[in-house]
Amino acid sequence: MGEEVKVFGFWASPYSHRVELALSLKGVPYEYIEEDILKNKSDLLLKYNPIHKKVLVFLHKEKPIVESIVILEYIEETWKANPILPQNLHDKAIDRFWIKFIDDKCLPAIRKATFSPENERQTAVEEAFWSRTSSGSSFIQANLP
């Protein structure tokens, strides 16, 4: 099945990393294709992700899937060995909460702190640190499960 699985990714993408990690944990061989997303997107990337025209693209049996969370669910349901999510529904819901929290709160904050111009970096870090959660409390005060 290894030659049937391809991952179009970018070396600095946490979304690519999470899919590669899931495939490794599951023992699924795959081909990794590095994309030059800054200067020269490949024709294959544009073909397989014509809507967003960006990484991450997961290809299984020549059928593309995009969005890392959707890809992770597909991997989990396709390859049953070595589950990456707990079987208990409550525990699975908690894991999904953390995935969403990381995607919605942590990754944007890291991106802002990393890629903001030098003179705006301190403000970006402070804003991310004191940002509000959906419950209205600051990130640092949030009631987390």
Automatic annotation (TrEMBL):
Q: Does the keyword Transferase apply?
A: yes
* InterPro entries linked: Glutathione_S-Trfase, Glutathione_S-Trfase_N, Omega/Tau-like, Thioredoxin-like_sf
Keyword set for this entry?
Cytoplasm, Detoxification, Transferase
Annotated compartments:
Cytoplasm, Cytosol
Provide the GO MF annotations for this entry: glutathione transferase activity
Q: Where is the GST N-terminal domain?
A: 3-83
The broad enzyme category this protein falls into is: transferase
A Pfam family it matches: GST_N
Q: Name one GO biological process term.
A: glutathione metabolic process
This protein's source sits in the domain of life called: Eukaryota
Question: Catalytic activity annotated for this protein?
Answer: RX + glutathione = an S-substituted glutathione + a halide anion + H(+)
Q: What is its EC number?
A: 2.5.1.18
Q: Which GO CC annotations does the UniProt entry carry?
A: cytosol
Would I find Cytoplasm among this entry's keywords?
yes
Instruction: Give the similarity note.
Output: Belongs to the GST superfamily. Tau family.
Q: What function does the entry list?
A: Is involved in the conjugation of reduced glutathione to a wide number of exogenous and endogenous hydrophobic electrophiles.
Q: What is the official name of this protein in its record? A: Glutathione S-transferase
Which species expresses this protein natively?
Gossypium hirsutum
Query: What gene is behind this protein?
Result: LOC107891004
